[in-house]
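Q: Hi! First time asking for a complex rather than a single chain. Here are the components, and I think there are two in total. Is that enough to go on?
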Amino acid sequence: MPHKILIADDEPNIVVSLEFLMKQEGFDVRVAPDGDEALAQMADFAPDLVLLDVMLPRRNGFEVCQEIRAHPEWREAKIVMLTAKGRDIEMQKGLALGADAYITKPFSTKELTARVRKLLGERA
Amino acid sequence: MSDRAAIVIAFAVTLAIVAAVAGLTGGFVWAGLRPDERAAAVELLAPRAGLLAFVGLIATGLASLAVQPVIRTYFTGARRLAEEARIMLDANPDYRIARAGAPGLRELGEAVNTLAERLRGQREEVEARIAAAKASVEEERNRLAALMSELIQGVLVCNAEGRILLYNARARQLFDTDSTTEAAPVGLGRSIFGLIDRNLVVHALDAIAQRCAQGDVDPVVQFLTATRGGRWLRIHVAQVRRHAGRDGAEAAEEAGFVLTLDDVTRAVEDDSRRDRALHSLSEGIRAPLANIRAAVESLLEYADMAEAQRARFLGVIAEEARALSSQLDRTMHEHADALKTRLPLESVLGTDLIGAAQRRIESRLGMRAEVETADASVWLEAESFSLTQGLAYLAGRLKREFGVEQVRFRLERAGRHAQLDLAWHGAAVPPATLRSWEEEPMRAGGEDSPVSFKEVIERHAGEVWHNVGDGARAPCFRILLPAMSAEPAQRRVAPVIDSRPEYYDFDLFRQPGQSPDLDSRPLAELAYTVFDTETTGLEPSAGDEIIAIGAVRIVNLRLLRHEAYEQLVDPRRPLAQASIRIHGITPEMLEGQPTIDRVLPAFLKFSEDTVLIAHNAAFDMRFLQLKEAATGVRFTQPVLDTLLLSEVLHPNIREHRLEAIAERLGVNIVGRHTALGDAIVTGEVFLRMVPLLAERGIRTLGEARAAAEKTFYARVKY
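A: Yes, that's all I need. Here is the structure of the assembled complex.
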């Protein structure tokens, strides 16, 4: 069974690449365009890993992250936060809220896929 | 013994002596009479004894009536003489006792006057010596005050409780607010915490104490704060120590602190604009860049992807690249000012810069330099020396290599920039010339500079090019420099007010903290607000209103004319013609003035922490109290009335109008019947009264109020 990846981002232009990359890696991919939808998909789709943008409509990435970590049944899900804000302090916040990785845009696609694989316990 | 008792006893003794003499005379005559003569006398007098007694009584009564006015004249005359002598002694050395009353008293008065004349002569001599000694101290102080007034920083010196001991005009200007806001103005003896949040200052002082403990000598701490007027101030705090004891160093105690204020409003605004620009550049660019990078890397990594997928990626790249370009344009446009290079550039008026270049070219190069057109409103951010040098350098090369003898300047605004042209006539200069000139170190009029003109222009974030002339306009070198949008704020420093010494009062260093028990404080130590009002009429209860309030402060027995309060008030009712004649305030003057409900809060703030003084204070206080309900402003401070105090001092002098008192105490009267003018006269009068009151054992506020109260009731009774 392939790992399931949820992409929570509202920008179509990055979703194009992320979705393509993840599919190329052989993952089962779904997309959520806002925070509420991301949480709905958590219950519905039960992803192994979430690529979570910080600047989401309705419910921002930090809130979503906190919400996921508040549910014991989703404890196993990995969270990779993506942000266009380059401040260290926000990275601290993301990690403190329970994110497994915090990646600042722009990023190298290779590094991203390597990070995802590693978090899922696959060989890079 | 009272006057009355003395008079009664003196009269009784006189009568007794007269009676005794009459009795003795009668006794001797009786002893010399023969028995028949005695019988005849008894027979003659006995029936008429009643008449004799009656005549005796009438004579006694008449004698006492005749003597009384004389005695009275002498006794009350002596009292008046004593009061007048006291005035000379304590308040007004120029006062002279009137030539009135009984001849003896008149002589005594003249003798006292002569004595006063001699005393004055001696006093003047002593004062002249003291003045000479003081002059040098005063000069030092004035030098300090002058120095302070020249500073572009604001300076405030406070004692340990935060009361202002010294300030300069700039400090006052930085905290300036209009007279109807509730912010306390800068003033001697006022609390600094009315201007700056107490916590900020306390925090700074704590930090200083901590650094001192760590062995730092004279540490300075700074903080940033916003004033009520919307300015940003950077405030440096340093502690003032008083060295007590002879060996000094160990016994240094904290006597207060000094605040140095810099207006950084513009810098703060610039900083925040620069922050916004950086923010919009960095964060605005990350997302589109991420999209492009991810798409490009996918394209490169998976070269064999489907055509439709490839087209989608290419579409993303094209779209995001366009978005990035316009984002950059927008940021650069919006934040152009903020992103300018930061250099120690000063604000220079464009015409000043041209004037300097003109003088330099004419004196050092022997060329003629003229100004063709110059927009006098253009301000530049420039380092004027190197720019002037650069202009002279260009002119010098034009002369040396092309024989140009005359240059012309043009200055105008071109959008966000200032356009400065250096034009010449005649000589044909190839357009490429400037490019080589601007690369070389500048050399002009025997002065070498290692810097090239290009560097100078770059440092100013400017541009320069050769503008080829046409038939109408001569060729020129055109220089574009960043212009300032408006005249820099710092040029509008308020004119320095003359007679500076009132700005400081070092004696406040020794002032005890503001005690709740004011009554026990000596009069000489208190801060006062002396005020006067002008009104539409004399009956507040009948609807008469205040139309002007004037006030000055007294701190440490000095009248602070610079810290005056003067405000006209719209009474919202017509003025009586008769009242206009008194106060000279016409209805037109009151148009647009604030109403009493806006004025009283500001006046309350002005008079905060002080004792109120007014002449016939009851009248003015009545007006203020009638407004309490409507405005919610209550004046609860203690009040002193110079009218009552005058009666305390001179109960035997009948005249207690302000003019009469002022004249008696040697106070010059200026500007009477303006609220501020009267307040000043009242204040001067009060200052003269303080030593006179002390003569009578009235030294504290409580004693003064009690004495005034007593005369007030005495007045009401009669």
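A: DSSP finds five helices and five strands in chain A. Let me know if you'd like any chain examined more closely.
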